[in-house]
Design a protein that fits this description.
Layout (H helix, E strand, L loop, with lengths): L1 E5 L3 H13 L3 E5 L2 H7 L5 E5 L7 H11 L4 E5 L4 H9 L4 E4 L4 H14 L10 E4 L2 E4 L4 E4 L2 E3 L3 H12 L5 E2 H9 L7 H15 L5 E4 L3 E4 L4
Parallel strand pairs: 1-2, 1-3, 3-4, 4-5
Antiparallel strand pairs: 6-7, 7-8, 8-9, 10-12, 11-12
The structure holds calcium ion.
Length: 221
Amino acid sequence: MRILLVEDDDRLASALITALTRHGHGVVRTGMGVDALRLAGGVDFVLLDLGLPDMDGLEALRRVRRVSAVPIIVVTARTQERDVLRGLRSGADDYLVKPFRTAELMARMEAVVRRGTRPMPARDQVVTVGDVRIDLETRKVTVAGLPVTLTRREFDVLALLAREPGVVRGREEILDAVWGDPLLSASRSLDVHVAGLRAKTGRPGLVVTLRGTGYRLGTAG
Ligand code: CA
């Protein structure tokens, strides 16, 4: 598997990389939560330390979960049950409390993989809006049966809205989830991507703009 290791402790990280590599895994390592959001899309498994220098690990976890169903084990020095429960509720598949033996880590990872992929927040993998069909799993969109080619981010924006039709997503929330950056500097990008979605699908009503609030999935008008 390709594993993303989010761990700011160099000694622990290098010990884990050695162990994981010995078990035949490829490891991408970062010490920053912000990188986790960027890199989680390209890996098969995430090991996430909750104590990160740039953001709360639980926040990083929630952000990754908004856009990905990748298996995640949180690694924590926090022994408080409340934090562990928050981690599991925020979308972790399992947790390990430091210090732990690498054999224990391997066993937990195997168990998570064996259990299979967690369902995405959407009840259905395919969301249909009029004649627009959005497949959240295969990332394919069709309009009236014909495929529409969207960029990765156009699809991510659409998928975020489609996962919970009717729910309004704030601009910052979308920027955060899709770009990993809630700052206004990326705001124009969001407008451009929404315009692209409307133009490419030929369904301007598919994404509804709520002035000053955000966006939600609309109708295929
Ligand atoms: Ca740490």
